[in-house]
Fold this protein.
Amino acid sequence: MTTPTTPRRSNSTSSINNKGPIFVTGADGEKGSAIVRSLLEMQLRHSHLNGFPVYAGLPDASTTEARELEVLGATLIELDPIVKPEAVVDALRGMTKLCLVVDPHGQQITRVNAAPYARAYIDAAKQAGVEHVIFLSPFSPCDPTTPPGTPTLDARRRPSFPLSPNTFRMQFSIIESHLQLIFSAEQITTIRYPGIVHQHLLKFFANYIATHSALPLPNHPHMTIESSDLGDIVRATCFVAFSPTSRHGGKEYKVTGPQLMTLEELGHRVSAGLRRDIRVDMVEMPSLREILLEVVPNEESVAYTLEMWGLQWRLNGRRFEVTRDLEALTGQSGKTLVEYFEDNRNAFSVPIQSVN
């Protein structure tokens, strides 16, 4: 682990080829830690990617998970931008790129502090001279998106319905607006992953499926949903991080799975992937909330999950699409839900205990 005041490389070379340190926020969470791991693993496999030291920002560098990142080659930066936002400037000095990961499934992010957390990083990144910010967001504007072949970042797009002040969607809207205010469009790349992330089905529903041979879903069987895989989100982020800023600056990408589906079809695909009959239990949102809290007793994490399900229902039929952005970025299409369940069949077979 290093302190935020440790000297790092000079800025003189990064303006030429954009090589230099990459700082990943939220490295204590699922997405942030996965991005850190992938950045390091890609450098081991591809020698031409050397020259991108990876720094992991997290509130506690003493955890087992943090130490694992350090062993892989990450430099751990212990800081809390909510408690001590002034320390973030020192932490980001000398960084070339900032992967701004705000993960509601972590222990730190809530419907109140997500925007202040991100603003501290954005303001500090500007002061520290960071050249490129890669922002990950689970939310998309509600009006039609740009064709995948020519993705652009349009600061004028706004949601077409009112936002509650106490929602994650509002927090992410504030973050995005502030980012566009502080940095020029050419310095920002946005990666969106709307809908349901495959890994969250494992996190929240593996125990229920293993115990009941059933999948609890919101009581809207014909609701269309988008989905994506965490591995695909991470892969897209790493490709952008290792590329010159000029290649992806000012653009946004939407990472989706290769198929749209209704909730009814989701149940069929779970059965196909697990190779056994899985009943679909359609339940109302309050009941679904109780089921989720039994597995993950974290109110904010469950609130975020239900917000994503509710948003999909509210926007049903208005903006759903399958993009080829991932294929354009990485040369590979995304993982299907059936493939995900096939790869993780054992995890849905044995009941697990609740996690914190």
Notes: The radius of gyration is 20 Å. The longest strand covers residues 132-137. Residues 22-153+163-348 form a domain with the Rossmann fold fold (CATH 3.40.50.720). The mean pLDDT is 84.
